[in-house]
Amino acid sequence: MLNAFRRRQSTQSQPIAPGPCNNLFQQIFAVRRDPLGVLLDAQHRYGDVVRFEALGYVSHLLCHPDAIRHVLQENSRNYPKSVSYDLMKPMMGEGLLTSDGDFWRRQRRLSQPAFHRQRIGAFAAIMTRITEDMLDRWQPVAARGQWLDVSAEMTRLTLSIVSKTLFNTDVGVESNIVGKAITVAFKEFDRRLAALFALPDFVPTPSRRRLKKAIQTLDHVVYRIIEERRRSGEDIGDLLSMLVFARDEETGESMNDKQLRDEVMAIFLAGHETTANALNWIWYLLSKHPTVERRLHNELATVLGGRPPTLEDLPKLSYTTMVIEESLRLYPPAWVIERRSIAADQIGPYAIPPGSTIILSQYITHRHPACWENPESFDPERFTPERVAARPRFAYFPFGGGPRICIGNNFAMMELQLVLATIAQRYRLALVPGHPIEPEPMITLRPRYGILMDLVPRTEAETLRD
Question: What is the reported pTM?
């Protein structure tokens, strides 16, 4: 993903950005070992525009909110997706996550109405019900005093939610098969990102055979459901129906089966992997900050009084929302965005040549000392309206920004609010002593060793003491 290494003198009028000049292979192995540490160190050493170069390939890390705004919003047409996104095309195809240009714009127009606030609001009760079902399954585990791998639980939960809201299907054998196939595909993409050298695509390695089988499994399930929905001709209100019956406002055309299939896969990524990891980091941070956890419980007790949260409750759960936003700041599931420059550009005083890979890292900018005081501390109060208004817009961009801002951002935030409020009313999740917690930055920012936690039931007396 990131190659680094020596500076050359610029022949352009603008200077080239500073950057490391380490031994090539030393730098490559440093990136493979600790990409977050390498990027943080680069920003601290060289500033807000850092140039990396190796074997003729040039990359620039951009850290300041003004530079983020320039690439994602002001001059976005000069910065399409980088080639790294091609790694996901075997599963994602030409969905919103991987496509570009006019085709992407058409797909965005077709998909946008499905994610309107009013339409996704209909899914709130489904999200709460599925979460309560999970909590019922937790009861015997809590009674026995056993710990749970919360990361595995959150993955199952978000898969159940996305299956129901996307396909209107209950989680069963087929959904479990889908979840396993997605996991296989993600592992293969992670392996490709981490590989020093890539074999040609036609070489049938064991991991590529597993990927091919996983994609065949997903295609079989998705195409069958699309065919059944088209045959029924019924709009049953789930996301798939919204996409099947969507019409381009400019051309009147709808999506064909291949386009529908690709968008379904993109929704699985956004509604499954990223949301699960966001929840993982929320539980970890709450377990380490009991004062924040108590204030969260106080708000939930005051607003909800022990009943399940509803869509109408969410505007009243302001501190709950701030907890989520601060967690997304410290551990953004989508921790890096890559673009490539088409034409030469200038960012700050520095020249950006055509063909340069542009690295925008939420993990880095969310810790920028010019925007965040004590950036490593967990402080939900950073997200009061007054403090948000005082910061640059792109100091915080967990869902990206500009024309390509995540289409499911409102869906994800609603899901996070409802799941957090539902679980936190019934349990405290306490990190198992000695269990290591380490971010694993691959396609998403995961906890490398999972998150083992004890379930502590919240009795009525405990709620009152909060």
Answer: 0.92
